[in-house]
């Protein structure tokens, strides 16, 4: 059976370069890996413990938790906003971090990649995302990184799937994450 990787994107805009990077991951995934692109992070309300209670959890949050729970691994694809994680992605991580100790990310292999306009490719945001999911209990693949600088210029005309340097490095991340998920499943 294929290893299922769920991709969560930290940008909501239609023309998002990170969304395109996630689309590239879907397209280049090797045969034994199925990469899915999650839609609907914009409909998940801000995390609030008052509504994270039996009978009150918003449907969009339940859908997100179920999707992450069913995946063998999660790939976060994010730009950097003001030196850190975009709120939409942090909100998703917060929902996935609860119930405490038993959230959908618990023990789940997670890798973080992304592209941003700055010269470091959003590495602060991606490092922060790693920190947050680690605290949420994920099995973070610290060695599987990809931070692509100059998003707005580099991908102005070029889809990441048509950028050989990107697809080569992204393939390493996907294969490494899938291998980690397989190893976790067989422990
Ligand atoms: C609110 C906001 C804050 C940003 N802050 C940063 C930043 O701190 N570092 C950076 O490299 N780029 C920053 N950028 C530029 C983004 O990295 C760039 O627009 C990126 O392509 C956005 O991702 P997307 O194309 O997936 O929407 C910021 C953009 C916005 C809209």
Automatic annotation (TrEMBL):
Annotated InterPro entries: Flavoprotein-like_sf, FMN_Rdtase-like_dom, NAD(P)H-dep_reductase
Residue ranges annotated for the NADPH-dependent FMN reductase-like domain, each copy included: 4-148
Gene3D superfamilies membership: 3.40.50.360
Pfam families, sorted: FMN_red (PF03358)
GO cellular component: cytosol
Gene Ontology molecular function, alphabetical: FMN binding; oxidoreductase activity
Protein name: FMN reductase
Native organism taxonomy: Bacteria, Bacillati, Actinomycetota, Actinomycetes, Pseudonocardiales
């Amino acid at each position: 059976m294929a290893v299922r990787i769920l991709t969560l994107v930290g940008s909501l805009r239609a023309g998002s370069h990170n969304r395109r990077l996630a689309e590239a991951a879907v397209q280049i995934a090797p045969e034994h890996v199925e990469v899915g692109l999650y839609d609907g992070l914009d409909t998940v309300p801000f995390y609030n413990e008052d509504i994270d209670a039996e009978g009150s959890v918003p449907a969009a949050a339940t859908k997100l938790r179920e999707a992450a729970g069913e995946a063998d691994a999660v790939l976060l694809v994010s730009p950097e906003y003001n030196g850190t994680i975009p709120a939409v992605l942090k909100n998703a991580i917060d929902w996935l971090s609860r119930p405490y100790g038993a959230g959908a990310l618990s023990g789940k292999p997670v890798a973080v990649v992304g592209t941003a306009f700055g010269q470091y490719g959003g590495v602060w945001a991606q490092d922060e995302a790693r920190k947050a999911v680690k605290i949420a209990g994920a099995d973070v693949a610290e060695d599987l990184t990809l931070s692509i600088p100059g998003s707005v210029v580099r991908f102005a005309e070029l889809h990441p799937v048509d950028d050989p340097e990107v697809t080569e490095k992204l393939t390493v991340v996907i294969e490494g994450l899938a291998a980690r998920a397989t190893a976790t499943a067989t422990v």
